[in-house]
């Protein structure tokens, strides 16, 4: 489990937290049922959570290690067998049982010690079409996208030196979030892997795919 903690939090004496985060970031998003790889780590998209870790075997030995960053839970299964025991599957099921029986208690909210005013201006409600989402500012200039109500697509984003963000988890894992500005420098919309988010539903004048009908919303003609 110490190795699982290292893969989650890193250790500056070996690899920083940002480096181990890169290790568990696949080149393409982990969809439900999909299995991919980061840098030496396997990433599996399940029904309820995304797991990272690895399985392995030698004659007479099998092992499986999975970590759920969102649940802050890890599971390790070791067995002295050559075949017959799906160690990775058992570890994943064990992790799921613990996560459901003992759900993670959210960390208490604390204000950020410093806030970039330009980033703060990006927070609040945005719309993908008519669907509202909320964008929050997190530590290290990161962003958190969540549905305003009910279920929907969300993700945490890591800030990149070029001024964009990369999705760490969820539907937008591996996708690039960038701010698109108008000629006067003001924010026009957010581009998230070609998904366009505007401040108002189908905001007039914004870069809405397909454009907005000049006559506005109306019922179908008879």
Walk me through what this model shows.
This is Beta-lactamase family protein. 15% of the residues lie in helices and 32% in strands. The chain has two domains: 2-101, no CATH class; 117-197. By secondary structure, it is α+β, with helices and mostly antiparallel strands. The longest helix is centred in the middle third of the chain and has 15 residues, at 87-101. The protein has helices spanning 2-9, 17-23, 87-101, 117-120; strands spanning 35-37, 42-45, 50-58, 61-68, 73-79, 124-128, 131-137, 143-147, 155-159, 165-167, 176-181, 187-192, 195-197. The chain contains four helices and 13 strands. The relative contact order is 0.10.
Descriptive tags:
Beta-lactam/transpept-like; alpha+beta; 222 residues; elongated; DUF7586; Beta-lactamase family protein; five-stranded antiparallel sheet; 32% strand; 4 helices; 15% helix; eight-stranded antiparallel sheet
Strand content: 25-35%
Mean pLDDT: 86
Strand line-up in the sheet with most strands = 6-7-8-9-10-11-12-13
Approximately how much helix is present in the residues? 10-25%
The total number of structural domains is 2
- What's the alpha carbon Rg, rounded to whole Å? 21 Å
SS elements, strand count: 13
Give the helices and strands as they follow along the chain: HHEEEEEHHEEEEEEEE
Describe the main β-sheet briefly. Answer: 8 strands, antiparallel
Q: Which spans have pLDDT < 50 for at least 5 consecutive residues?
A: none
Decide which structural class fits the backbone: alpha+beta
- Globular, elongated, flat, extended or rod-shaped: what is the shape? elongated
Distance between the termini: 66 Å
Number of helices: 4
InterPro entries: Beta-lactam-related, Beta-lactam/transpept-like, DUF7586
Domain Beta-lactamase-related: 7-95
Organism: Streptomyces sp. SID7499
Domain DUF7586: 115-199
